[in-house]
Write a structure and sequence with these properties.
Its EC number is 7.1.1.1. It holds the Pfam family PNTB. Keywords: Cell inner membrane, Cell membrane, Membrane, NAD, NADP, Translocase, Transmembrane, Transmembrane helix. The chain has 18 helices and 6 strands. By secondary structure, the chain is of the alpha/beta class. It has a 6-stranded parallel beta sheet with strand order 3-2-1-4-5-6.
Length: 465
């Protein structure tokens, strides 16, 4: 069998593994296997590509593989689930910058040929890789900085910021067109890459922390699109296919997230959600004298007579790493014959599916997780709702205040339950920077404290009751 046939067969097998792997990632029970299938597909693609190229020495390649593998192992062991959104942002960024460098290297090799004849499919793909890859790299690291707290989570706005983005974007497009017309001028490519990096900063810095799940999904899509464009540069089928899969799935997920927030992608990118946080008055007067605090012992008495309980996980639960303690509470209540389910909002946490992954990590049965559309109509029949670290996704202002930054966002209607217990460190606002009227509702009790510690205290009180 010819080498080309073996190569194409290997790429076909790798592509199939990618598709099957993504399909299996859709369910927690098969997600681990899907991840392994995707990794196997990538291994096959990399090995096949290395054998296909006229490589004189593998020394530096092996060094890169060893360093990359070591970094990957350390990250897999050390990174906590609460930091997974930041890691995803970083990986997106590295995918983008890799496309920039690979396309730049391809341009260097092709410049001598362009003196005689220009391959416009190649040069257009090279330019496109520079633009999308550059935006992905800098935008992803701005998102990482916001999530990690290195950069303010608030939307950074300034007079004329939209005009600046438009001008920088037009500059990138103009340089791209010129680069296609004058492909032998390598300096244009690197100037274009620099402008694209700048554009990525300008695009993401005005976006507030509440929109980071959408931004991460979008940047993930960008990294796939950049990889696919690089596939056209290299005439590499598996890179085209895998990049297209990542790009398409990222766009679909972005649309799902926008729908869950009842906002358009344009509004996310240019609306500056989160900017109002700096304009809000102190919430002390809003809550003063209206909040009813409770204790773990009082909550235990409520749970002792409850027949149905819904737990709403949020980012506060993730920060406290309380998912395993929440599982212990779930098992204790279930053993007493209480029906316990989990209400999952699509944008709870800092990345799509964040709460699903955390609860799956704690071995909570997947059929106990109910999506917002499925569970909202049942809250009025629920005895006790325990909100563990969630805020904006339960805020009634989304329905009652058309001027609120979360106006129109679908929320979990926990206020319809007979009793709501909110576990929270303080009355501080969520990402949107607005107070939550749920906290002063007649049927709401506030259990102040760390999500893990408060849940453990509830378990102890239940066992003693």
């Amino acid at each position: 069998m010819e080498l080309v046939s073996i190569l194409n067969l290997s790429y076909l097998v790798a592509s199939i593994l990618f598709i099957v792997g993504i399909k299996q990632l859709a369910h927690p029970k098969t997600a681990s296997r899907g991840n392994l299938l995707g990794a196997l597909g990538m291994l096959i693609a990399v090995v096949a590509t290395l054998f296909d190229q006229a490589i004189l020495t593998y020394d530096w390649i092996l060094v890169g593989v060893l360093i990359g593998s070591l970094i990957g192992i350390i990250l897999a062991i050390k990174i906590q689930m609460t930091a997974m959104p930041q890691l995803v942002a970083v990986l997106n960024g590295f995918g983008g910058i890799a496309s920039v460098f690979v396309a730049g290297a391809a341009l260097q090799l092709s410049i001598p040929k362009y003196a005689f004849a220009v391959n416009y499919q190649e040069i257009v793909s090279i330019v496109f890789s520079a633009i999308v890859g550059g935006i992905t790299f800098s935008g992803s690291f701005i998102a990482f900085g916001k999530l990690q707290g290195f950069i303010t989570e608030k939307a950074v706005r300034y007079p004329g910021d939209q005009l600046v983005k438009i001008l920088v974007g037009l500059t990138a497009v103009g340089l791209g067109v010129y680069g296609c017309l004058e492909p032998t001028d390598e300096s244009i490519y690197w100037i274009l890459s620099g402008v694209s990096l700048l554009l990525g900063v300008f695009l993401v810095i005005p976006i507030g922390g509440a929109d980071m799940p959408v931004v991460i999904s979008l940047l993930n899509s960008y990294s796939g699109i950049a990889a696919s464009a690089t596939g056209f540069v290299l005439n590499n089928n598996v890179l085209i296919i895998s990049g297209s899969l990542v790009g398409a799935s990222g766009i679909i997920l972005t649309q799902i997230m926008c729908k869950a927030m009842n906002r358009s992608l344009t509004n996310v990118l240019f609306g500056g959600f989160g900017a109002v946080a700096t304009e809000m008055k102190d919430d002390g007067d809003f809550y003063s004298g209206k909040v009813k605090s409770t204790s773990a012992e009082e909550v235990a008495m409520l749970l002792d007579v409850a027949r149905s309980v819904v737990i709403v996980p949020g980012y506060g639960m993730a920060v406290a790493q309380a998912q395993h303690t929440v599982r212990d509470l779930y098992q204790l209540l279930t053993a007493r014959g209480i029906d316990v389910t989990f209400a999952i909002h699509p944008v709870a946490g800092r990345m799509p599916g964040h709460m699903n992954v955390l609860l799956a990590e704690a071995d909570i049965p997947y059929d106990r997780l109910k999506e917002m559309d499925e569970i909202n109509s049942t809250f009025e029949n629920v005895d006790v709702v325990i909100v563990n670290g969630a805020n904006d996704v339960t805020n009634p202002l989304a329905k009652t205040d058309p001027k609120s930054p979360i106006a129109g966002m679908p929320i979990l209607d926990v206020g319809n339950a007979k009793t709501v217990v909110v576990i929270k460190r303080s009355l501080s606002p969520g990402f949107a920077g607005v107070p939550n009227p749920l906290f002063i509702a007649d049927n709401c009790l506030m259990l102040f404290g760390d999500g893990k510690k408060a849940t453990q205290e509830m378990i102890t009180a239940l066992k003693e009751s």
